[in-house]
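Table S2 (text version). Query chain:
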Amino acid sequence: MSQCNRKYLALSGGVGGAKLAVGLAAALKPEQLTIVANTADDFEHLGLHVSPDLDTVMYALAGIDDPSRGWGLADETWAFMEAVDRLGGETWFRLGDKDVATHVLRSQALHTGIRLSDVTASLCRQLGVAQRLLPMSDDAVRTRVRTDEGVLPFQDYFVRRRCEPNVSGFEFHGIDSARPQTDFMQMLTDPALAGIVICPSNPFVSIEPILGLPGVQTAIATSPAPVIAVSPIVGGRALKGPAAKMMAELGRPVNALSVAECYQALVDTFVVDRVDGEMCERIEALGIRTVAESTVMRSLEDKVSLAHRIIERLEES
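Corresponding structure-token output:
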């Protein structure tokens, strides 16, 4: 297979996954890359359908994201939220003035029966995103977090409660009857598929919902394409989000080995940061080839460099 005909599939959550998606987009031709984003943290807010991970990846690929916050749009303003507050509405989840247009148009389309996949494709076209970005499913799957304060909808736990409650587990409502997005499943059987990348996203609430969809793990396991995963835990810390806190509260060591154990049955190669290089031998004892790279992506150069190294590792598999 010629290099230009190779296709790659990335599974992504929000911020960390979006960074690697940008690197892969720069390293590959647009038609070579498909990104499947988690939608289990989608929810309805102020009557609008919000897709946080999809939008984080979409805005990053379009080059219009806010790098300082890691979510939302650059140069955002907040007059809408100020008006909502003045009228006594809920403001714990903030929607910027430009960002709210995405949610209005998505909600309008979904209410007329248009699939989330088609809405996403339309928004990507309007924003100039050439890569294919897919929701993991067109059916509703919703994450619930089991905590010492009861079972909380994910955004209530993550944003309203700022990840403060102690976590004891997760539930994915609707996952047993949800169907994986059609093009996603078809790609897993595409003979041109040269590699599957599990991005450095939270393994519990970003990647597990994707892998938990009926038939997905079997399709990945039986695909001839090699699978590579990048650890979101570096030096015992999560660079963004609550993954490390969740690990500790679930009684798991907060390290890259714990992440590798989550993917043990699926991945061929696991990538740790160089600061965790001493863990390679322990992870390889799980039967996973392990490599140490610079995985902290602070600049576009970092993102592209890591993407090239991942592609090289896939070609070696």
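Notes on Table S2: The longest helix spans residues 300-316. The chain is about 40% helix and 20% strand.
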